Amino acid sequence: MRSLLQQLLAVGPELAAFILTSPLLNARGAHAITQVPSPNLDLSSLGRVALAGDFDSISLYNYEGQSEASFNTNGSQSLLTQYPDGSFQSLATADASIMTMCPFVQKDGSLAGVVIGGNFTSLGGVEAQSIALWNPNTTQVTALPGLSGKVSTVYCDASSGTVYVGGSFMAGNSTNAMAWTTGWTNLPFAGFNGPVTSITKNAAGNIVFGGDFDGLGNTTTPQNPDGQVINIGSGNITAQGSATNSDPHSIICNTNSGTDWLLQDNTAGYWQGNFSYGFNPTKLRLYNAQSGGRGTKTFYYEDLNSGGILNLNYLDANGENQSCSSSCPLANNASAQDFHFVPPVGMNAFRINIVQWYGSGGGLSGIELFQDDIYSFAVNDYNEPKCDDVSAGSASTATPSNLWQRVNNNGNSSSDYLSASLQSPDQVSPSTAVVFTPNIQQSGNYSITVYTPGCLQDSSCSTRGLVNVTGTMTSNTPPVTTTLYQSNNYDKYDQVYYGYVDVDTDNFKPSVTLVPQAGQSVPLTVVAQRVRFELITTTGGLNGLFEYNPNQAVVSTDFSTSKINAAGASLSSGAMVKAVQTIGSVLYVAGNFSGNGISNVMSVGNNATALAHGGLNAAVQALYRNGTMLYMGGNFTNTADNSVTGLSNVASYDTSSNSWIALGGGVNGPVTSLVPLAINITRGNLVECLTVSGSFTSVNQVDRNASFSTQGFAVWVPSQNNWLHNIPTSTVAISGQLTTMTNVTGSSPLYAGQISASGLYSGAVELVGSGRSSLETLGLTLLPSSATNGSSSASRRRAIHAEESYNGVYNGLYYAKSGLNITIVGGHFRAKASNGSTVENLLFINNTAGQEYTGVTGLDSDSVFATFDTYDTTLFAGGEVAGTIDGRGIKGLIAYNLSTAEYASTQPAALTGDTVIVNAIATQPNAATVYVGGNFDAAGSLPCATLCYYDASTSQWNSPGTGLGGVVASMVWSSTTTLVIAGNLTINGAAAALVTYDSKKQTFSQYSSATTPGTIEVLAPANSKYNEFWAAGTASNGSNYLAKLSNNVWTGVSLAAGTTIRGLQVMALTSDHGNTNLVASNQALMMTGNIVVPNYGNSSAALFNGTTFTPFILTGRQDGSQGTLGQLFVSNPQNLMSNTKKYLALGLVVLIGLAISLGLLMLIVIAGILMERHRRRREGYVPMPMDKASNLARIPPESLLGGLGEKSAPPKL
To answer: Which residues form the Rax2-like second domain (predicted)?
Structure first.
């Protein structure tokens, strides 16, 4: 086998040089956070704006890289950092867990990168077995090849520029422990004979290892070497130069029985084998041909993988050791002759080249290969043949045999393997199994490794899951079981057992059984490849702890000179150390151990010392230090003497006062990791917290804080001495799991796990501010979705989606008339009322005087409210609603008096039909008629299917006319007498999706002659004239669509697969975008639901500018899955279609223009009169006297009028 340095160099000298020497001076990180452009929404005229949905957390899409991706269930985790708003950015995703990391600072102080370890096979898309180097400056991942197994802990020692690595792995000449400096370095003690789980540096400058080991050790050669026969008969056997009728297969499993394979006369040739699995041969056994004096005289063995000629050792005729390579002699007799490989080299193809021969030509009578490695293959053809007296035979059995299919590795894995595609739940059971039975010839301590082929090579990643691996190792101890993920991208090696294994006997054979874990969904792919047993030797003398002085080249096996080693030895045998931590000169050790009054945790100064009250009463799995405070997580419930309550699986210990402190009441299950995290508990208030991850389902009650459900994750706030969930002012929600973190100088902290953090708003939220908006709580508190009442909740349906289920808040309404200020939200949920009672599905937030939360009674728990409208102070609420009000059954619709906060005295008669659903309510403008549409046959005794109207003044149902059928999904009044109706409709039997209703004529007609893309489930006006519409629904081919109707033409918009639209709304903008044919430059279309944005992924709300989709709002649920949004509602709905530039209507513009013109004319006339009077005065004009007598005296009348009767003379020419 090549050394690890050789393996490193095999990746190429350039890459090796990069790995070993690249410094990252003052790395600030290319994971610099980039804020996305503002959506520029103009909310100024809308009043209050809210979004309803099914979510427990919500955030705006503010930064590149933010996503709504749900948590993986295949065990994969990510490298993470935080955005300024507290949400997390994924930097690189692993295909399994990330368990440990540390910044690798070299001797010169430069940062070489962050070392990341776990049990992954790929990180950030780069194949990397268990360990890799991440560059914070470029975000590049570089594999550190050479380990096979799992890395559990790393410690970066900046003073020496060394990374100490521990886990369950093989590397070079070391087991379970290794060091990296400028490449892999074997530690002088060759590792440990058991897993290493923790590494730290103590006050003396020595490296302390903790784990499940009892000595230094490594793999060893069996007492009887070369004991495993390699099944060369399963390969593709060929030859060159064979004599006529001479078959190269004939000498396999043939120990000189007289059948020879011969070459042609006087012709060189070769015998070759190519195999679908790899092996590491230690011995070659050949039998020479014995036909007519013919036989092989000299040969050489060629490794076809590397093309090299291998060195062989053998005994000559005098019994002396000899070596050969290109010309190895073979005696001319019938005896078996053995050749040992020096050193052994792994391969899957070889050739025996015959160079010289005896007699007329060469040949062989038999061939065998042996190895020390003990394997059992799932493909039984690869297991040991049983054709001689040497092999007892390894084997495997796959059941049922017809379910398991052999998969060709195509060079992507170490061997072919078996795969079972499980298509029915009954196949996910122990009856689907592969049993591996190795050939164990020597009892002893073994490391047992299960090999799992990667899922990329057979494209099965989406259907891979969990398997249970059970080992029966001895005849008198119970089996051991562990669970493994099989979702690894590349080949993975899991150590499933370390310990004693009995030798094969007639009555007992060790075995390993692989079965799918029960309860998984189908389709499920299960794979089985091989199991390896490695014999381990040990020095003994240790017990879970070892102190290593890196300045000593030789490690003494006199462990008593170390106080730390002696402390481990003072414990009962079998100590399992999970964590070690140094505070000052004292080492704190935690795990699963006892002895001398010590229970599961101790301090080591001059000797091993129990903590207060003897320690804890069960195992400790995790340890975190914050100053002088130690936080511990595990399986314990109290101190060893049961004297401190509240220490349920998590606790803290003050090392300065030697006292235990409870974290509330603890949690109800095991804790596996404790990771610090800074959190904005309230906006702008960054607080250091501690995340607690494990296998628990609730946080226990303490004092006045009730218990609360959780999915294995909780956050402790030390400054508040309380859990984050219990802090009333908290506005952040965090879910998932964190496994580890590290601080990197000049960069943000790095975390590992699966986690999401966003605003703690449940079910409904307000959108505040124009431009770059923000989110604020509506104040309602919904119970977790897992607590939603009734098992039928998963089957509740909304609108015309017969297959769609919905939980959470679906819609809402603001009411601010008649001196009231009430917010109404409805859907399918449970919430807390102000009096502490539980409200179901319909909630009133009354802000008229203070703030009060109330609900209604008498309705079925599985009701769903989907639509609202009002007439005067009466609320009409509809959906899939049923129940009893004042002894009278209701269905589909209720009426509620907002002013008296009680049901209306007269309720609308119940709607009837096979499936009664009200999808839309629209009160007619300037009238008391409330139109109700959906899926029903009649209203009380009135036969008015699909659409009825309720006269609020007479409390009577009325029929709007005849001819309309089907299911109404949405309605909007385009004028005081015209109602636009959308859905899956018919008019007089003819299919229709968009219909116009004339309330004066009581007639229905097709809205447009254009053919709709399909049934309409969501409708929104596209302009203020209500002659253009956006619609979404289901196309005739079953796909979802989005389209706009304009100028009697439907124009479709391509949607990504998986998109579900529940709401549409045209929104005004504060800043124009480029003008498009579909969306005006000062508008954007908001879509809510589950919107798959191309080249991004899922978002709960997205904006469309006519050409491009942009994520807008991201949501999540408590269980880590994606949330969804229902409807947007506002307090000024009449302004939803107003233009941001606030242009006046054309008629009003004409009237104003006319008024201005008349005003200007009047001003001109008045100005002219004033100017004329001024001119006359200036020129001496005076008013004519008004004394009539005086005037008559001055000019007698006859002077003026006397000649009127006289004839005038003709004019003279």
So the answer is: 226-364
The gap from C-alpha 439 to its chain's centroid, in whole angstroms, comes to: 42
Q: Over 60: is that where the pLDDT of 572 sits?
A: yes
- Decide: 673 and 739 in contact? Cβ < 8 Å: yes
pLDDT score, position 11: 33
Given the DSSP bridges, would you call strands 1124-1130 and 49-54 parallel, antiparallel or unpaired? antiparallel
Please state, in angstroms and as integers, the Cα–Cα distance from residue 725 to each residue in 358, 707, 720, following that order. Answer: 87, 10, 11
Distance, C-alpha 107 to centroid of its chain: 38
pLDDT of residue 864: 94
Q: What was the pLDDT predicted at 1123?
A: 87
Strand order, beta sheet including 162-171: 148-157, 162-171, 174-180, 184-185
Statement: residue 450 has pLDDT above 90: yes
User: What pLDDT band is residue 173 in, cutting at 50, 70 and 90?
Assistant: confident
754 - beta bridge partners?
A: 737
> Among the listed ranges 18-27, 581-590, 1043-1052, 1079-1088, which one has the minimum average pLDDT value?
18-27
Task: Check residue 789 and give its pLDDT.
Answer: 41
What pLDDT shows up at residue 1024?
A: 86
For the stretch 937-945, contacts whose Cβ atoms lie closer than 8 Å and that sit 24 or more positions apart, written own/partner, are 937/911, 937/912, 937/913, 938/911, 938/912, 938/913, 939/908, 939/909, 939/910, 939/911, 939/912, 940/908, 940/909, 940/910, 940/912, 941/909, 942/909, 945/913
Which backbone phi and psi does 912 adopt, to 5 degrees? -130, 160
Of the candidates 990, 828, 785, the one whose C-alpha atom is nearest the C-alpha of residue 917 is 828
3-state secondary structure of 4: helix
In 3-state terms the chain splits into helix, strand, coil percentages (rounded to 5) of 10, 45, 45
> What pLDDT band is residue 1156 in, cutting at 50, 70 and 90?
confident
Q: Cα separation of 865 and 936, whole Å? A: 16
Strand, coil or helix: what is 564? Answer: helix
Range list of H helices, 1100-1196: 1146-1179, 1188-1194
Strands 698-699 and 708-709: antiparallel
pTM: 0.77
Task: Please identify which residue in the block is written with the tokens 């035979």.
Answer: 393
Angle formed at CA 1039 by CA 1035 and CA 1040, multiple of 5 degrees: 80
State the CB neighbour count (10 A cutoff) for residue 752.
Answer: 28
Q: What is the mean pLDDT of residues 198-210?
A: 96
Share of the chain above pLDDT 90, in %: 64
Q: Which amino acid is residue 347, in one-letter code?
A: M
Residue 217: name the closest of 442, 439, 536 by CA.
Answer: 536
